[in-house]
TrEMBL record:
TPR repeats lie at residues 42-75. This is Uncharacterized protein. Belongs to the Tom70 family. Gene3D superfamilies: Tetratricopeptide repeat domain (1.25.40.10). It comes from Methylocaldum marinum. It holds the Pfam family TPR_16. The lineage of its organism: Bacteria, Pseudomonadati, Pseudomonadota, Gammaproteobacteria, Methylococcales.
Length: 271
């Protein structure tokens, strides 16, 4: 399941209200003053609700969004954020009902895609990975500009539902639409290795190596694949090549924890 931080990053931008990094409490107090004079102003309620969410007060946020919906039923972004607040309050059924209302009223594909992503998050939180995967996939299909994160969400949800073949299909389709993005290729390679599809994984890792990105890490994975295929001599040569790549890195990069851990793993394989 995606973290709540990722959910906020994806959702807080929906209504087009820019949240700065100033004093949230001060801005809430300012809105308190304005709402004392205009208690049914949906714009002010939505602004304050989003600030409450940013500050971690989902219960106050939920109340503001509910008031905004009552005051201005056409402000459907309030439904969207109400679902977000309900999810944060561990009320997935209420959250799902709110986002479904949002989807019924959404006027364009971009809005529907955002709602479907939120639906996927709620369904994931409800331990319904297959339904979550279908929601994420529907969002990808609706989007004119596909977001790699949404492809990953769909693939991960299918994997959680035990549909690894479908997860691979989603990733490969994403790569076909977006190009050989490393983040998608890495996830596909991981799935192939988990499923024991070593010949396919070997072909993929060779394609990835052609981009010259993360070469030591990919050589390590290639070595593991060759080892699984009982091609021991090639495996050792590949591990050695990965060590040489590390040795060629600038000193500061060699000290990165991930690189140090990789060196340890490579030496363990060679020894």
């Amino acid at each position: 399941m995606r973290t709540r931080a990722i959910l906020f990053t994806a959702l807080l931008g929906y209504a087009g209200i820019a949240l700065s990094h100033g004093d949230v409490h001060e801005r809430i107090r300012d809105l308190d003053h304005e709402l004392a004079h205009h208690p049914k102003n949906a714009e002010l309620l939505i602004k304050r609700g989003r600030l409450f969410l940013e500050d971690g007060h989902a219960d106050e946020a939920r109340d503001d969004f509910a008031r905004a919906i009552k005051s201005a039923p056409k402000r459907i972004e309030a439904l969207y954020h109400l679902a977000q607040a309900q999810l944060m309050l561990n009320q997935p059924q209420a959250a799902l009902a709110s986002v479904q209302r949002f989807l019924r009223k959404a006027g364009n594909d971009a809005a529907r895609a955002r709602g479907l992503v939120l639906s996927g998050e709620i369904l994931s939180a409800s331990d319904q990975p297959l339904a979550a995967a279908e929601a994420y996939l529907a969002a990808v299909k609706l989007s004119k500009e596909v977001k790699p994160d949404h492809v990953l969400y769909a693939a991960d949800a299918f994997r959680s539902a035990g549909k690894t073949g479908k997860a691979m299909e989603v990733l490969d389709d994403g790569i076909a639409r977006l190009g050989p993005l490393h983040v998608l290729a890495e996830r596909a390679l991981m799935l192939e290795m988990e499923e024991g599809r070593y010949e396919s994984a070997l072909q993929r890792v060779d394609r990835m190596l052609a981009s010259r990105q993360r070469v030591p890490f990919l050589l390590y994975k290639k070595g593991l694949i060759l080892k699984a295929l009982t091609r021991s001599d090639e495996s050792r040569r590949t591990f050695s090549a990965a060590l040489r790549e590390i040795d060629a890195l600038p000193g500061s990069r060699k000290q990165i924890r991930a690189v140090e851990n990789l060196r340890t793993s490579l030496l363990a394989e060679l020894n």
